[in-house]
Amino acid sequence: MADEPAPAEQPTPPPKSRGLLGYLPVIFLVLLIQAGGAYFLIEKYMFRKQKASATIGQGVVEALSEEAGFKDPPDLLPKYDEPEDVVELEDMHANPAGTRGDATVFCKVVLGVAPAKVKEEIQTPEVKAKIQDDILSVLSSHPPEMMDQPDDKRALREEIKVRINAYLTKGQVVEVYFGKFFLQIAQ
I need a surface site. Which of 31, 52, 77, 160 has the fewest CB within 10 A? Predict the structure, then answer.
């Protein structure tokens, strides 16, 4: 028994190849990551305008009103349906959001105000600077796709009106008009 030779170790067989089924989890993971990335890109860039237009509407105006502490005009002043006077502001230009300077919007804003005495308040240097800053903020916070249709411009005018009315004390802006509105996009 002691003279018996030790059994020779047999060489280990080479590992079996994984085949196509072995790579299936990796392939599935790569496809899942690609699908998620495609979904994100489509949602962010292709359907951006539709979602953005819906969010600018009345909900944003109400949110801005609440944020600024602005109450409905009947609480503060009589409600005016028609402007009694107009205030022309200087020509302005801004770069819309997400353009990296490749687009510019040029505009001239005219404010329809009531009562007429609010015109004096708007023409004070402090209030005029604040109004111009608010208008530039609105124009630079929206992408060009949200400025090119009539409904888009209507929403911009409403947002500007709400922002300005938040701090006027002698009256209110009844209408916002664009005397000029030009959107230039570099190709």
Answer: 31
Which CATH number describes the domain made up of 57-185? 3.30.479.30
Would the pLDDT of 57 be above 80? no
Among residues 110, 118, 108, 124, the alpha carbon closest in space to that of 165 is found at 118
Q: pLDDT of 102-157, one tens digit each?
A: 899 999 999 999 998 999 999 999 999 999 999 999 999 999 888 888 888 999 99
Q: For the chain, which residues make up each domain, given as ranges?
A: 57-185
Alpha carbons 62 and 162: distance in angstroms, whole number: 9
Run of H or E residues at 129 = helix 125-140
8 A C-beta contact, residue 64 and residue 165: no
pTM assigned to the model: 0.61
Written as six digits, the tokens of 98 are 């997400």
Which secondary structure element, helix H or strand E, spans residue 86, and what is its range?
strand 85-94
Write the DSSP symbol of residue 151: H
